[in-house]
């Protein structure tokens, strides 16, 4: 990702074996001026919480780092070196892969993803003392509760091998603790529709039975569905 990592992640150290970092969207709708095209970049906050110390509600993302598509031509379009994408993370311009960038674009624009927790959303306005930041800030919250997100590529310092190893051991707890696991199969196309149908059929059929159906075989060949931990 670049030389920014040491400063970025040192400013958000993981003090305990059960600490993780969570992403949230910046509340201010401002332009960064750091894009090559002078476009507005999505701004994200990175904050540390402890899974054993009443963390805020958060969602976790399951996705593929590379291209979500088997088609070679489409896969080349997702090559991060020739098609870099950027977000602002705690004030730093950070390069991320296209598939993750496309998810974050959708996540940033879809209230059903960001403001999902019915408990937080139901806090009465006449009790302002209840509207406090779940991470401990005394400021009043936006009327729409903030939703936090765990994404391995940004919440883990990928340049720190020891941290990566320790965070991988926590992943089962992270996904279990999350209020929702968001499965990102890529921008919608026919293969994504097939994959969703395939997963739906697993409610009533075994994996082998679903695989035997020709119209769902393509979906089962999707990168995400072929992950060892899923099958």
TrEMBL record:
Recorded superkingdom: Eukaryota
Heterokaryon incompatibility domain ranges (all copies): 145-230
InterPro entries: HET, HetReg/Transcr_Mod
Database matches in PANTHER family: ANKYRIN REPEAT DOMAIN-CONTAINING PROTEIN 39 HOMOLOG-RELATED, HETEROKARYON INCOMPATIBILITY DOMAIN-CONTAINING PROTEIN
Entry protein name: Heterokaryon incompatibility domain-containing protein
Record lineage: Eukaryota, Fungi, Dikarya, Ascomycota, Pezizomycotina
